[in-house]
Structure formats: C-alpha cells, structure tokens
Amino acid sequence: MEDLSKYGIVSALQAIGGKWKPHILFILLEKGTKRFGELRRFMPDITQGVLTQQLRELEKDGLVTRVVYPEVPPRVEYSLSTHGKSLERILRDMCAWGFTHEEFVEQNKI
C-alpha cells in the first residue's frame, strides 16, 4: 500500500480536517482573539469536551495560540498563530465554496 503521508493534502486534512477545526479557525480569523466561552457561544452545538480537544490539537499543530493570564479566576484566550493566519485564503475559499455548494445542492435537489 502506498504511503499517503507524503501527500500534502493528507497533512492538511490531519491539521484542519473534521467538523469543528475549520469552524474554530474561521471564527478566530473573522472575530479575532476569543475566550473559551465566547467560542462556545459561536458554536452552540459543540460540547465543552470536544471544543477543548480541538483547541488542544490546533495548539499542538501550531495553528492556535493559547495565552493564560495569571488572574483569579484564570483568563485564557485563543487566537490564530502566525502559522494559523497562513490559512486565511484557504478558509475564505472554503467558505465561498460552501455557499456555492449549498446553491448547487438546492438547485439540483440533491
């Protein structure tokens, strides 16, 4: 069997694929730095545990920066890293394609 890890698309999908990661990245791109609770409000269908896991993975991959402020209670903020900002064109293109796809589906009764 061929080693798929040599294809860039596989690396890209591992980093930003799934139901929630592109959504998280797009919120941070469009809205800027957000706290955990603010992200949850933008994504009411995501569970706290899944959001936590997705943010950890995005941070591990260097796409999101997590800053903890030494306050009581602690304040934690998430933002796109410099590397994460390199996804801007891709995320905007995905969003535009999504609208085009919705129209296609509606017109073709798929």
Characteristic key phrases:
three-stranded antiparallel sheet, Arc Repressor Mutant, subunit A, 6 helices, 110 residues, globular, alpha+beta
Explained architecture:
It is a single chain. With 110 residues, the protein is an alpha+beta fold. It has a single domain (19-108), classed as Orthogonal Bundle (Arc Repressor Mutant, subunit A). The chain is 59% helix and 13% strand. A three-stranded antiparallel sheet has the order 1-3-2. Strand 2 and strand 3 (75-80) form a beta hairpin. The chain is globular. The mean pLDDT is 94.
Task: Give the beta-strand count.
Answer: 3
Shape: globular
Helical content stands at: 55-70%
* CA(first)-CA(last) distance: 34 Å
Broad CATH class: Mainly Alpha
* The number of domains: 1
Q: Any idea what the radius of gyration is?
A: 16 Å
Order of strands in the sheet with most strands:
1-3-2
**H/E series:** HHEHHEEHH
Strand content: 5-15%
Q: From the coordinates shown, what is the CATH architecture?
A: Orthogonal Bundle
The main β sheet shows up as: 3 strands, antiparallel
Put simply, the count of helices is 6
CATH level 3 topology: Arc Repressor Mutant, subunit A
What value does the average pLDDT take? 94
The CATH homologous superfamily corresponds to Winged helix-like DNA-binding domain superfamily/Winged helix DNA-binding domain
Instruction: Point out poorly predicted stretches.
Output: none
The helix-and-strand class reads alpha+beta
